[in-house]
């Protein structure tokens, strides 16, 4: 009887102990998880601040009135907020009209780039033809070679009637118009086209061949297969490339400056001359005041992209995932 | 139509394939091959651009490598700009890759506000326009200006050596035989945190995508077999994202080169000083240097890369 009681007590204490151990282990795990989450939160918060800090500064300063700018006690929250900066920036950037043209320009370039790069990427992914390897090496060269290596010859080419085809346009001088960008994009050599061709190539290679074979047996030609079967299946790649292409075209200043594309089309060029425009037309010569107008202009410039990104973010991450950049 | 029917299927496929890549072929020949040849020729000759008698264009006169001699032995800043551009690129490269991988690992975990965090980390890509980044740099100084009184106070107390003396700790690290190169690198890395963060937007997106494409089954197996999270990282996560490390390295090098001083220098030499030959030398020499670096880094990395096929 005693032995049984001893055994029972021992068993009870053991069970308690294991439960204790389990509890301790559980608590430890929870503490570790909490500490890690805290660490992660601190890092992500800190870096987000580094990224957002200047933006907050820009947004806050764009509402400053002159007194706020020179008041030593004002930091980020204006005492006499004003919309004057936005009014004048809107006027001097000719915002809505330029934005409309810019969106038209960027959208048409993006669509063109999508069509051409998808086509070329599909050609590389699914067909065998002589010189294929060399041509694909050319795509890699295009990704790697910095575009400034070829900038002057390009400038010269577009100034002097490329291929003798454009004599009808401004005596063959295409500079100053967006035509050079459209020409280069249409021929698959536009802004980072190499990268996009590469992405499409990887993506199409990853799609199963059976759907194409089915289409072929059903009597569709190669081109019809591409348009009606492959393109609808390539949505992730298309979304990825479309966002990257649109963002880079919108922000591009290299080609815009090289081809001297008019600032009635390019918002980025309009923005970079805003400070001088305001200094000359509105006699606001004080640099720390005219900077405030530039901040309002920056807000105007970022806004469309930000809206686009917020709407498309979900598709975007999913798209990059499935687009085959990942291999 | 009749002739087409005579072709065998592979021939027909080859022809169609060639049609698909035709725009690119034409573009590459017209814009790239043509331009590269012209740049090389320009770098080897005395270039004069005239608008004489309705003939716009340039004439080139062979001048015994004079442009190269001038670039390397006479030009005031070319060699410094070239070396500092390349060095900055090489210094930033590991920082950007490690930082973006690290942040991608964080952003890939489940926590509240993940969507917002991801959106914020992609912002630098959206804000890439030079006009915007100039404004942002100005605004950064402005934010620092607001905080600086407080931080100056803190720094003053630090500098007095009463509480924490940063210099003393650095000195101590030096005494512990931590090589000064490493200490300087770390100090430099902290100082460049802004550059690193703004340059790693695309890389983070690519790494996040790569991490999400890893089959969860691999992690399940590792967990059942009793692997720690450290082992899981080095045996599963790292090998699975390693192909993307190569992609990101190439992207980082190309991207940081496009923004470097040497590009500005060659642009200014051509379009401000109208010194076409010299500008061509600058772009050619720097491009060749970058391509060599790319080949070297690519070769080094591809031997250690794990390809899951």
Describe this structure in words.
The complex is a heterodimer of chains A (327) and B (309). Chain A is mainly alpha-helical and 327 residues long. Chain A contains 15 helices and no strands. Chain A has helices spanning 2-61, 66-70, 84-93, 95-126, 132-144, 151-159, 179-186, 193-206, 210-217, 222-233, 235-251, 254-258, 267-272, 274-281, 287-322. The radius of gyration of chain A is 30 Å and the shape is flat. Chain B has helices at residues 2-6, 9-43, 66-74, 78-108, 114-126, 130-159, 166-175, 180-191, 193-199, 201-212, 216-224, 229-258, 261-271, 276-302, and strands at 45-52, 55-62. In chain B, strands 1-2 form a two-stranded antiparallel sheet. Chain B has 14 helices and two strands. At the A-B interface, α1, α4, α5, α6 and α10 of A face α2, β2, α4, α5 and α6 of B.
Summarize the amount of helix of chain B as a percent range.
Answer: over 70%
Looking at how many chains there are and whether they match, the oligomeric state comes to heterodimer
Largest interface: A-B, 97 and 93 residues
Main beta sheet strand tally, sense and closure of chain A: none
Total strands of chain A: the figure is 0
| Count of separate DSSP helical elements of chain A | 15
Number of strand segments of chain B: 2
Per DSSP, the total helix count of chain B is 14
**What does the overall shape of chain A look like?**
flat
Low-confidence stretches of chain B are: none
Distance between the terminal alpha carbons of chain B, to the nearest Å?
A: 42 Å
Q: Compute the CA-based radius of gyration of chain A.
A: 30 Å
Helix content of chain A: over 70%
Q: Flag low-confidence runs of chain A.
A: none
Distance between the termini of chain A: 71 Å
Strand content of chain A: under 5%
